[in-house]
Design brief:
It contains 13 helices and twelve strands. It is an alpha/beta fold. The protein has an eight-stranded mixed beta sheet, sandwiched between helices. A four-stranded mixed beta sheet has the order 6-8-10-11. The protein is globular.
């Protein structure tokens, strides 16, 4: 697997020009690297090797980085390859200044909902759950649905001042995912988790820091560079000791996380066909407020 990722990042493909964060790439102690499309099937997931840090960008700004099945599938592959690549010690995930990710691409999601455990979104969640190395996220702009729940699996999260988080599942007639029904109460307490999940209201970066979802809030323009600096610091630590420490930190909940994620996935698939979810989706497409008054 490690060789596969090295080949993917070296392959000749379309090279994406420098980003607004390219100053970090020019640091003298980082091996030269270029943004490249991993392959034509998922042009919205861009990877860059910065010595021992793998930087992964969700790049679909015209849709606020909404995730398609192809993007989930590519993210799952990236996490799996990075897990087996001995040259990669840390993975950093981020989006653009205005969007980490708006969650699922609802248009595609409604037309082709995940039907079984092999669905790309569930493969990504499994890869996220099982990733044995440090996983950092830099969040700027919106982080909706899985854009927030995936952060519960991060080892460090840095947020821009303008970041907005939301778990809208219940309002869409669905249920929590990514083991968030376990991990969020463990992080913030059941009462606060119930408010966040049941009401589904957005909250800002300072509240996210207060409840422990993010490590630090920074100016939006500095967020990705700061997260990259932290990733580089982690990459200089003894790698086996870092992996063991992460394993021990997660040990007490590992079995429960897997069990909870499996149950959430089962319920989520069932909820997709529910009348409440259908009403929520119809309201979204019609750009109206959903009416749940007839349901019991």
């Amino acid at each position: 697997r490690g060789r596969g990722l090295r080949e993917l990042t070296r392959q000749r493909g379309r090279t994406v020009g420098p980003t607004r964060h390219s100053s970090a790439v020019r640091s003298p102690d980082i091996a030269p690297a270029r943004w490249q499309i991993m392959n034509a099937a998922a042009p919205h997931i861009v990877i860059e090797r910065l010595h021992r840090v793998l930087r992964v960008e969700i790049r679909r700004p015209e849709k606020k980085n909404a995730l398609t099945a192809a993007m989930y599938g590519r993210l799952a592959e990236v996490f799996q390859e990075a897990a087996g690549d001995e040259d990669i010690r840390v993975l950093l995930l981020h989006g653009q200044p205005g969007a980490f990710t708006a969650g699922n691409d609802l248009g595609e999601f409604l037309n082709d909902p995940p039907a079984d455990e092999d669905a790309a979104v569930f493969r990504f969640l499994a890869a996220l759950r099982d990733f044995p190395k440090p996983f950092l996220a830099a969040v700027t702009g919106v982080a909706v649905g899985i854009g927030t729940t995936m952060l519960l699996h991060c080892d460090m999260v840095y947020a821009g001042e303008g970041a907005r988080f939301q778990l809208p599942f219940v309002g869409l007639g669905l249920c929590p995912e990514a083991a968030s029904s376990l991990l969020l109460p463990a992080l913030v307490g059941r009462a606060r988790a119930a408010e966040i999940i049941l009401l589904g209201e957005p909250f800002g970066a300072e509240q996210a820091r207060e409840i422990g979802l993010v490590n630090r809030v920074l100016p939006d323009a500095d967020t990705i560079d700061h997260a990259l600096a932290q990733a580089r610091r982690l990459a200089q630590q003894p790698p086996a000791a870092v992996r063991l420490a992460k394993q021990l930190l997660n040990r007490s909940q590992a079995a429960l996380v897997a069990e909870t994620m499996a149950e959430e996935d089962r319920q989520f698939k069932a909820r997709l066909a529910s009348p409440e979810a259908k009403e929520a989706c119809a309201a979204f497409l019609a750009k109206r407020k959903p009416d749940f008054s007839r349901f019991s």
